[in-house]
Design a protein that fits this description.
single chain; 431 residues; alpha/beta; 2 domains; five-stranded antiparallel sheet; globular
Length: 431
């Protein structure tokens, strides 16, 4: 068989590893049909939005200077608003990351002495620096007089009753992080987020609710904006960029909110009317067009990683039978060396920089050393196959992305080859 031949002879995959992965693949294929149904719906949703706004080739042209009258930029934002079923959108290459988009949103909405409450527990590491909870970086929200509180999850669900009790006269915004971050839990499902929003709205109908949607776009038929969130935030080098977008972030939601955030991005009075796109319009829209399919490929790859390593006795989240709400597969190794090995394997499977090895390093915005494997066409693109882990117990590897399922399968096989260096893994493989 030609596929087996190239994997074994050219990539150095042993027959034992090949057969083991193929057996697991056969066991998980029953999950693929549901993923395909979600992909199909979201693909039609994206096409419809592009057709509704009469996207044409001239929209890919761009100008210079201030970026006045950039029809393509305006078209992108109309399309994103339609896809997410919101009043307005801000989609810009000048938004450098998901963290940047979240900072813009919070600093655009919140003022001195306002309070923000995270109702999904401890946020992702980089957000702690933004909030002023860790480090003491200039310009953090605490320095601006913004009060921060958080409410832990209860049984991996939003504790909306505690959230209601914690709200004060100063509380202006509730923040929900859909994805897992560096915690070890399943991502919050749309159903759980919907239930919490409905219950909170019964008591506080006018409070702002923001959802960090990073890693979650197109995993479900519905987005947080469909179930009551006022503002939804994400990165273009994750799911909605489809591996094509070169950079950027998005914020979608109510027009009054988007206007404030746009003024924070540029300046009051000009808002969305300026901002050069640097010729990225086509990449942004083509990436959005690819996104539903790419996300489905990444989800199938996450299932394969989860299936293989759970069969070897490692604890994983989400488990194979759980509903998924992001593209991340977390594997708890309780072993620093194993985490490094799996990251090395993901890097070795990459089409870009496959010849280098990742090492733990002091990455900006993180309090622990972090190892990141990302041999991507777009630097930092976590919709492409990547793996990362903070160097702290219990040593959990977070694996996500994959433009094509076949690429992820290669990553799984090479990771098993590296894991065979550990006797306990080798014994389990031969059982």
């Amino acid at each position: 068989m030609l596929t087996e031949e190239i994997l074994c002879k050219q990539f150095g995959v042993s027959e034992t590893v090949y057969n083991y992965v193929m057996k697991i693949e056969e066991n998980i294929k029953n999950h693929f049909e549901k993923i395909d149904k979600v992909r199909e719906y979201n693909q039609y949703k994206v096409i419809l939005a592009m057709q509704e706004h009469r996207l044409d080739y001239t929209n890919f042209y761009w100008n210079t200077g201030y970026g006045y009258d950039d029809v393509g930029r305006e078209k992108v934002e109309k399309i994103f608003a339609s896809v997410f079923h919101t009043e307005d959108a801000l989609v810009r290459p000048s938004i450098a990351s998901g963290t940047h988009a979240l900072y813009l949103t919070l600093s655009g909405i919140l003022q001195h002495d306002d309070e923000v409450i995270s109702i999904s527990g401890r946020p992702y590491d980089t957000m702690l620096t933004v909030l002023g909870e860790e480090g003491n970086e200039p310009g953090n929200l605490r320095e601006a007089g913004i009060i921060y509180k958080e409410i832990p999850l209860y049984n991996n669900d939003i504790d909306w009753e505690s959230a209601v009790k914690e709200v004060t006269m100063k509380t202006k915004l509730l923040m929900i992080q859909r994805s897992t971050g560096y915690s070890f839990r399943p991502a919050l499902t749309i159903e759980k987020i919907k239930h919490a929003i409905e219950k909170i709205r019964e008591v506080y109908p006018n409070i702002y609710i923001m959802v960090d949607n990073c890693y979650g776009e197109f995993v479900s038929e519905f987005e947080p904006s469909d179930i009551g969130a006022d503002v939804v935030v994400g990165s273009l080098i994750k799911n909605p960029g489809g591996g094509i977008a070169l950079s950027g972030g998005y914020v979608v939601g109510k027009k009054v909110v988007i206007d404030r955030i746009a003024n924070r991005l540029t300046a009051p009075g000009v808002g969305k009317e300026i901002g050069l796109t640097f010729g990225t319009t086509r990449n942004t829209l083509q990436g959005l067009f690819f996104a539903p399919h790419i996300v489905s490929e990444a989800l199938k790859g996450a299932l394969l990683f989860g299936g293989v390593y759970s069969s070897l006795g490692f604890e994983i989240t989400p488990e194979l039978e759980e509903d998924r709400s992001d593209i991340i597969q977390a594997i708890k190794f309780n072993n620093k060396d194993m985490v490094i090995k799996i990251c090395e394997a993901v890097q070795a499977a990459s089409p870009v920089d496959g010849h280098v090895s990742p090492v733990p390093w002091d990455m900006p915005g993180y309090t622990n050393q972090v190892i990141m494997a990302s041999g991507a066409f777009v630097s930092g693109s976590s919709i492409e196959l990547s793996a990362d882990a903070p160097m702290r117990a219990p040593y959990i590897a977070y694996i996500q992305g994959g433009l094509f399922y076949d690429h992820v399968k290669l990553g799984v096989m090479l990771s098993l080859e590296k894991m065979m260096e550990f006797d306990e893994i080798k014994r389990k493989m031969y059982l």
